[in-house]
């Protein structure tokens, strides 16, 4: 990658020597439209930020973004713009403008940032931040920097409404402060969904008041596999250290509020009926065999499934009833992936249940299970979202599909009038290796997903009829943490691939050019470095 980047920069240098030097706006993701102007705006210690009454929070956000590095305590006030140089944040009453869009006009006299909603203004602030010298990202005063913004006119709006980043906190628990940092990084990239994978075989991570054993038992595993998971020979090397942790409901509410200030919706995931070994460890009565089991210490797919008794359905609905009081998200994720059906096939009780419900087999039973959650969530005014296996055996009425095994699931969902999010392994699984030289990379789950492959992905399936394209809500990057033991490991895998995906999600497809992205990325990585992000060097 280093070579590619050097070549790209050299090519850019040759071009700009031959043509008029165009200012380089190193904004990631690239805005929909940028026109360079003449001159620059200089931010001075007394430059006022004037805002519409509804934008007080955004005015304060901007002042607090500009404050630490400049050392300026910029005044924020509501009302009319003064004749002197100023920054103005305005709301536009124009129902034709994209909800999340904004326009940013910078001249030597003023910076005018206008959005139709506060989220649009927030995204304009993210752009403005990136038009300043990178030192603006420092958290303490930097002297000898002129805080200038080049004159420019930007009109911008996102391509997709779902611009997601996922984080698995089950396989390895991630501290609350890192979850906030991850949300900050998503927001910096104008991403707006945080898919929080809160439960899995290796640990349940959310306090549920009615079922305390979910965290007393389910949040802790006795030890963790060392090295790569293989079945031959059977796993034998473990670290001997208890691992776990969970978020209290107040912790989760704090995260939700933190995300909301950054226009990020937190979509919680509660896995069912598979990826549930930790639930069975805590409450064996909801499992499908009579064997006791511990919270899982190895990776790969566990055979432990929930059963489909009425008491189990009630249990999961009670869990979701608490979940919806914590997470205002319109979508609640119920997992549904990789529920291998061996225990259901072998269980006379489950087989009797299939008959009793008049179903055809195990796939239909899973569909029935998910349908019970769909009905429940719909009654709470929410929408169920699940991995694409929820299509097997029939898709629940109001479900949205997250397509991970390629995009077939998204095509099937969109074709039948359901919404879908694209999360295919081939371009969005950031737990895959970033280089073929795996010996010089940290141990990963496998695969190969280099930065350019993420960037060059055209997500809208060509085979999808135009009238169904609106069902493709957007794209999402996945961070599964079997082999990512801590925040630094997550950052290494997430960046800069998430930066590339942010551009896939935000920027019009025809505007994306790999060499241009790599040139902007070189500057963007300086920002990430200042923010103490352990990105993979390019
Ligand atoms: C998945 O990767 N099992 C959704």
CATH architecture of the largest domain: Alpha-Beta Barrel
Query: Any idea of the CATH class of the largest domain?
Result: Alpha Beta
Unique ligands = acetamide
Alpha-beta content class:
alpha/beta
Distance between the termini: 5 Å
CATH superfamily of the largest domain: Glycosidases
Report the sheet-strand fraction. 15-25%
Largest sheet: number of strands, sense, barrel closure: 8 strands, parallel, barrel
Q: Could you name the CATH topology of the largest domain?
A: TIM Barrel
How many strands in all? 19
Instruction: Note poorly predicted spans.
Output: 1-18
Summed up, the helix count is: 17
Q: Which outline best applies?
A: globular
User: Can you give the helix content as a percent range?
Assistant: 25-40%
**Overall domain count:** 2
Q: What is the radius of gyration computed over CA atoms, rounded to a whole number of angstroms?
A: 25 Å
- Sequence of strands across the biggest β-sheet: 8-9-14-15-16-17-18-19
**What would the average pLDDT be, to the nearest integer?**
95
Could you provide a short overview of the structure?
The chain has 17 helices and 19 strands. It is α/β, with parallel strands linked by helices and 538 residues long.
């Amino acid at each position: 990658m280093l070579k590619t980047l050097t070549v790209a920069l050299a090519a850019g240098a040759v071009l700009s020597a031959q043509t008029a030097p165009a200012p380089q706006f190193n904004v990631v993701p690239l805005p929909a439209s940028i026109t360079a102007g003449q001159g620059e705006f200089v931010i001075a210690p007394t430059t006022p930020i004037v805002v519409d009454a509804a934008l007080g929070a955004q005015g304060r956000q901007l002042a607090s973004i500009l404050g630490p590095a400049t050392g300026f305590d910029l005044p924020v006030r509501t009302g009319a713009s003064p004749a002197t140089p100023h920054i103005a944040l305005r709301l536009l009453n124009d129902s034709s403008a994209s909800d999340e869009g904004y326009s940013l006009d910078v001249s030597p006299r003023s910076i005018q940032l206008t959005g139709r909603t506060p989220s649009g203004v927030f995204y304009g602030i993210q752009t403005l931040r990136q038009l300043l010298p990178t030192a603006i990202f420092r958290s303490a005063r930097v002297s000898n920097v002129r805080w200038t913004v080049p004159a420019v006119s930007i009109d911008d709006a996102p391509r997709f409404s779902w611009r997601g980043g996922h984080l698995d906190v089950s396989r390895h628990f991630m501290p609350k402060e890192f979850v906030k940092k991850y949300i900050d990084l998503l927001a910096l990239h104008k991403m707006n969904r945080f898919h929080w994978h809160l439960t899995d075989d290796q640990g349940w991570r959310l306090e549920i008041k009615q079922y305390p054993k979910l965290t007393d038992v389910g949040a802790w595993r006795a030890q963790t596999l060392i090295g790569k998971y293989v079945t031959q020979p059977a796993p034998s090397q473990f670290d001997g250290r208890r691992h776990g942790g969970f978020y209290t409901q107040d912790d989760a509410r704090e995260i939700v509020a933190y995300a909301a200030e950054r226009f990020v919706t937190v979509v919680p995931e509660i896995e069912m009926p598979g990826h549930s070994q930790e639930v069975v460890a805590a409450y064996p009565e909801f499992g499908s065999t009579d064997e006791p089991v511990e919270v899982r210490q190895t990776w790969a797919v566990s055979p432990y499934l929930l059963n489909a008794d009425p008491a189990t359905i009630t249990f999961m609905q009670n869990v979701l009833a608490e979940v919806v009081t914590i997470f205002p998200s319109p979508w609640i994720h119920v997992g549904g992936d990789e529920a291998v059906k061996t225990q259901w096939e072998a269980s006379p009780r489950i087989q009797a249940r299939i008959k009793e419900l008049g179903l055809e087999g195990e796939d239909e039973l899973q569909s029935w299970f998910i349908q019970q959650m769909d009905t429940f969530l719909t009654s709470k005014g929410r929408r169920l979202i699940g991995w694409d296996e929820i299509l097997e055996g029939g898709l629940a009425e109001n479900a949205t599909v997250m397509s991970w095994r390629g995009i077939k699931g998204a095509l099937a969902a969109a074709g039948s009038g359901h919404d879908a999010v694209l999360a295919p392994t081939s371009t969005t699984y950031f737990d895959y290796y970033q280089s073929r030289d795996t010996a010089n990379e940290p141990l990963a789950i496998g695969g190969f997903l280099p930065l350019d492959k993420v960037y060059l992905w055209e997500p809208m399936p060509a085979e999808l009829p135009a009238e169904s394209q609106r069902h493709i809500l957007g794209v999402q990057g996945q961070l599964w943490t079997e082999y990512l033991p801590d925040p630094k490991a997550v950052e290494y895998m997430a960046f800069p691939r998430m930066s590339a995906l942010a551009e896939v999600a935000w920027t019009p497809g025809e505007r994306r050019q790999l060499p241009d992205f790599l040139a902007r990325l070189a500057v963007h990585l300086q920002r990430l470095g200042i923010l103490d992000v352990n990105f993979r060097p390019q």
